[in-house]
Design a protein that fits this description.
The protein has about 675 residues and is α/β, with parallel strands linked by helices. It is built from 18 helices and 24 strands.
């Protein structure tokens, strides 16, 4: 079920169930939403106890009335399935729906997002209400999509989940001998005699079998997906064919989103950057990278389903967004391929744990607030640029981001338990490309990589079966590979590869990692350029945390270490392989290195981004495209107005002022006919 819309979604989570005794407020909300340019709300996310106040007794009238009223005023509904929080009667009558934690304690009723996703009763109860909702609302013209549950995550260690885990393992390994082999259970004499003996990892039990830990994480994703399928199936049984989404989260470690996304028709995510904690541009890079990851999960448009209009009350400090930042944040979602920018929440709650969470309409309840005005400005802009809806982001560059590899790497015990700084390394790569205006996709090891020109493997610890071969073919056919230290170390069950690493790519890279040095936080080494190197690098850069010591097997050194007993050993190398080139970055280099290295490498490889011009500090440039047009989106996340580098040829302005300097937090969009661009490349 493809999601297609002619408009960019604007609106947010709306909780009318908290205001059923105030019809005046409900009426006013709709008026205010219209004034703020809202066209969509998410409803019913936490409404189960009102939708089904007693087992089997459903009350949908109030919801229908609200959906009708919204629809009559041009506002669509993303309707939730209510499983994110269950009614008290359900927990009391069927305690098996409550989660059991790692220490094997069953939780009491309370909080949310904490049901057992294996429990047949929970599955049955959610299926029943989903089916009823689908029958009732599935063909309502005002309902455009299903919002499945809420922020799925966490794990349950109850007996039902243990049984399902054992079944999953049996299916995966066939025999207990094979499982023992793959998990290396002879270590510390932890060998299993049968599948029945297996328990999920626990702080009061097993934590040292990395194969078990990894498979448990995989199982949690599998079981969550299985649960989700059950929810979706019930909606389909109720007759609805509407697309489904669920709200994903920022670099969420608990679930493999590449897998989960397969069950969704469209990806959406909850965006809560800590603006003003550091320079706004820094946050913009990190947030932009997460948008790109979300878009990459399905390689399709996604949308921002939640974000806070002002300060977020669960973060350490409730920082106000400075004027303009709400607008920029919303537009950044669109720039990176989003089909909408929505908020949590439309109206601020009066009590309980989110009463101080920012909202479009705050406790004061009127339009003359700074936040409301900025929301309205955003709504207007989204309407104005709506022709961009449905256009795509295309990238020449892909960075490997693989949940399995990351899980295994973070659990691996060595070479640096004080922090591998993986996220920072990803960001350093990402910024190197983005500063030049390259769009960036993320791929996991199962994704198709053939269409990219550049593939980066930052700390790709695990090489799954077949992956090295895929990368080899990529380079053979002319691809540019950038590998780093701590790649190709372990297999799919986290057993180390024998015979040298990076496993399966030593000939492609022309190098073997002999040893890796972990550095103390205060230590550093240097990467020193060799004279007349192919990239013309001339500066020395600092490196920290991890230094790989390479044996060169054909690769040419480009930089070498500046100190320690491995002074003079290669720190950056290149190897020609097939029609392509394979680069090896041996240490955790500082940001400045990545910027220069990537800039020179792109030039050396004769690649150009969408703009063949320098992009000023603080400016983000992203492109979206249709068959006919290229849209250039410029956003100023810096500290002063900047001149925007326009593409050559004739452009048409869609938003903003192209001739003047772009003020801080503002945006310009221009469009250009595609043939013009192609002509320019041919010339
Ligand atoms: C999450 C949830 C919402 C709300 C917000 C608050 O994103 O999905 O229900 O709690 O956080 O920021
Ligand atoms: Zn369970």
């Amino acid at each position: 079920m493809e999601f297609k819309t002619q408009k960019l979604l604007h609106g947010g989570d709306y909780n009318p169930e908290q205001w059923l005794d105030r019809p005046d407020i409900l009426e006013k909300d709709i008026e205010m939403m219209r004034e703020a340019g809202c066209n969509t709300v998410s409803l019913g996310i936490f409404s189960w106890s009102i939708l089904e106040p007693q087992e089997g007794i459903y009350h949908f009238e109030w919801l229908e009335e609200i959906i009708d009223r919204l629809y009559s005023r041009g506002i669509s509904t993303i309707l939730a399935t209510p499983s994110g929080a269950r009614p008290k009667w359900l927990a009391d009558r069927y305690p098996e729906v409550l989660r059991v934690d790692g220490e094997r304690r069953r939780q009491l009723f309370g909080f949310r997002h904490n049901h057992c996703y294996t429990s047949p009763i929970y599955r049955e109860k959610t299926a029943m209400i989903n089916k009823k909702l689908s029958e009732h609302f599935g063909s309502h013209p005002g309902v455009i999509m299903w919002h499945l549950s809420n922020e799925l995550g966490g794990e349950c260690h109850c007996p039902l989940c243990q049984e399902a885990f054992r079944g999953w393992l049996k299916e995966k390994y066939g025999t207990i001998e094979e499982l023992n082999r793959r998990w290396s259970t002879t270590f510390w004499s932890h060998t299993y005699q049968s599948f029945d003996q297996i328990e999920s990892p626990s702080p009061i039990g097993e934590t040292q079998l990395h194969g078990l830990n990894l498979d448990w994480k995989r199982f949690v994703t599998h079981q969550t997906m299985d649960y989700l399928k059950n929810e979706i199936q019930a909606l389909r049984e109720g007759g609805s064919t509407l697309p489904v989404t669920t709200n994903l989260m920022y670099y969420f470690q608990q679930l493999d989103y590449f897998k989960l996304a397969k069950e969704l028709d469209i990806v959406s995510w909850d965006t809560y950057p800590t603006w003003h904690k550091e320079a706004v541009m820094e946050t913009a890079y990190d947030n932009g990278m997460c948008h790109d990851l979300m878009r990459s999960l399905k390689k399709k448009p996604f949308f921002q389903i939640e974000s806070c209009p002002t300060s977020t009350n669960w973060q350490g400090v409730s920082k106000l967004k400075k004027p303009g930042v709400l607008f920029s944040q919303s537009m950044q979602a669109i720039a990176h391929g989003g089909e909408g920018a929505m908020y949590f929440q439309i109206r601020q709650s009066r009590g309980a744990s989110e009463k101080f969470h920012g909202a479009v309409i705050d406790h004061y309840g009127e339009k003359d607030t700074r936040v409301f005005q900025e929301v309205a400005k955003t709504g207007k802009a989204l309407r104005q640029i709506s022709e961009i809806a449905g256009s795509e982001v295309k990238s020449q560059v892909a960075i490997v981001y693989d949940w399995d590899s990351q899980w295994a790497m973070e659990d691996s015990q060595g070479p640096r338990n004080k922090g591998l700084h993986y996220h920072e390394v990803l960001l350093k790569f990402y910024r190197g490309f983005r500063k030049l205006g390259y769009n960036v996709d993320f791929v996991d090891m199962d994704c198709e990589i053939g269409g990219y020109k550049v593939l980066a493997l930052p700390m790709c610890y695990m090489f799954k079966e077949g992956f090295a071969q895929k990368v080899r073919t990529f380079v053979e056919h002319g691809g540019i590979l950038i590998n780093t230290y701590w790649s190709g170390i372990a297999d799919e069950t986290d057993r180390c590869y024998l015979g040298g690493t990076p496993h399966g790519l030593m000939d492609v890279l022309g190098a073997r990692s002999m040893e890796i040095d972990g550095l103390y936080d205060w230590e550093e080494n240097q990467m020193v350029p060799l004279e007349d190197n192919v990239l013309g690098l001339s500066e020395t850069y600092q490196c920290k945390y991890l230094c790989d010591l390479l044996e060169l097997r054909g690769a040419k050194p480009v930089m070498v270490y500046g100190s320690d007993f491995y002074q003079g050993y290669a720190a950056l190398t290149v190897n020609a392989y097939g029609a392509g080139e394979a680069w090896y970055v041996a240490a955790d280099a500082e940001q400045r290195f990545y910027e220069k290295f990537i800039e020179r490498l792109m030039r050396h490889s004769r690649l150009t981004g969408v703009l063949d011009q320098e992009i000023p500090q603080g400016l983000e440039v992203t492109t979206r495209e249709t068959d006919e047009f290229l849209y250039y989106i410029y956003q100023n996340f810096g500290t002063k107005p900047v001149k925007i580098p326009l593409p050559q040829g004739k452009v048409e302005v869609i938003h903003g002022e192209q001739d003047e300097e772009l003020p801080v937090y503002e945006m310009v969009i221009v469009k250009k006919k595609k043939e013009d661009t192609e002509n320019r490349h041919d010339a």
